[in-house]
Amino acid sequence: MEVKNICCIGAGYVGGPTMAVIAEKCTNIKITVVDLNEARIAAWNDEDVNNIPIYEPRLNEIVGNRRNKNLFFSTNVDKAIDEADLIFISVNTPTKTYGTGKGMAADLKHIELCARQIAKVAKTDKIIVEKSTLPVRTAEALKSILDNTGNGAKFQILSNPEFLAEGTAVEDLLSPDRVLIGGDSSQEGQKAIEALVNVYANWVPRERILTTNVWSSELSKLVANAFLAQRVSSINAISELCEKTEANVNEVAKAIGMDSRIGPKFLKASVGFGGSCFQKDILNLVYISKAFGLNEVADYWEQVIIMNDHQKRRFSKNIVQTLYNTVSGKKITFLGWAFKKDTNDTRESAAIYVADDLINEQAYIALYDPKVSQKQVLTDLDYLDTRKSDENEKHITSYNNPYEACKNAHAIAILTEWDEFKEYDWEKIYDSMLKPAFVFDGRNILNGEVLKNIGFVYQSIGS
Ligand code: NAD
Ligand code: UDX
Known about the structure:
This protein is of the alpha/beta class. The chain folds into two domains: 5-204, Rossmann fold (3-Layer(aba) Sandwich), CATH 3.40.50.720; 214-463, Rossmann fold (3-Layer(aba) Sandwich), CATH 3.40.50.720. The protein has helices spanning 15-25, 38-44, 59-66, 77-83, 109-121, 138-149, 169-174, 187-200, 214-245, 249-257, 278-291, 295-322, 350-360, 374-384, 389-395, 402-406, 426-432, 448-454; strands at 5-9, 30-34, 71-74, 86-89, 126-130, 155-159, 179-183, 209-213, 331-335, 364-368, 396-398, 411-414, 438-441, 457-460.
């Protein structure tokens, strides 16, 4: 079977970029990305392609190339489902905030709604692809809903988790380390796998397209994120030991990373990992393990999260301690709010938690991030529900200009590793600050020696 018409439910950080790249590479396939969020779809359709809702390097260029040719963004979910022969489900699967599994399990309500809607609308056979990250064995539930509520159309369910990282989404999609496709071993299942393989084979070398059973594919996504996050927590744990022993975590990371069995990537000590995936997916892995009675397995992985929470907290504690045990009434400047560079995504960003701690200590935070709006910053803080919204608003102010943000500050904290921070005129910044002027580099991106020579008290992670 040849795929000619694709629908993707969910126009978010995964659905948008992934479909844009498929559209770019498969110009003979019509792709419609649908979402219930009208504002988001309107932004994807904005005449000025620089206003699309997600910032990713090169994404605007690709969307500009393919939009309204073979790439469409729409709120008409039913129509897109009806017309498609293959449907990606790419909706959000956040950690549950209520009921059984609250704070641990993945919330699958959006997934179930999609399945019910597909079953209701579909008149012809379709391939359903799990693109969202899901607990292992979700395909079983999807199949049950589709088979029991449909109108006789047949469905094949595939798992095709997405491994892109934000900030490098386009690059990752254009040349992925691998594409993983899990499907049923039946003849129909194998045909469905082949159909999706053929889509990716338009640009991904065959040997990088890996096919497995559905359960291995679903589980591999959770495991990949758990392993990646585990590396960050491991190096962050060592960063604290380095601070006590005059070892330097950058040197340790280099020394261990040169062992080809360990490898050099994902060993950057930081203020803690953020993003919408790592914490959610590990919590889910912990929850699933506990559900099977595997308490040691659950405890092992939970420690990755415990270490990350500790890393964020000790960063804010250190700021308070270093500023003579009080930040009450002091202006502290944050450079960066996004959870990593080159994205406007702030979900679970370490900056949110550090800001919350410092506002508890009555600090006033001035903020500059090249891609994040004041509105988003307030939404993030309000979501924690630590204090009233007007209190948050009083304690945090976003600036459009980093030099203005730093003026009269007691301290600067680097929360995101945006490249432009390295290029600033740090002498000018020093001159405009209160003295002693402190820099807390939560990303180890600045040259400490240069800053110390200017006069800053400079502290980084793990040295
Ligand atoms: P997102 O919140 O940016 O986008 C999800 C979109 O789905 C939202 O716009 C929402 O309005 C829409 N939606 C929800 N229910 C819907 C419904 N019933 N009908 C139509 N639209 C609906 O989320 P995201 O970051 O794109 O993540 C999507 C999935 O991909 C998650 O499972 C996530 O774990 C996984 N994932 C994310 C990343 C990442 O880097 N963000 C990477 C790999 C995998
Ligand atoms: C992650 C996975 O990498 C990706 O494969 C998956 O599809 C989604 O989740 P993402 O969260 O977008 O991607 O970014 P990633 O580059 O993994 O960074 C996650 C967090 O870890 C960021 O806050 C980053 O700053 C932090 N990090 C990463 C470190 O602190 N040190 C490192 O060495 C690497």
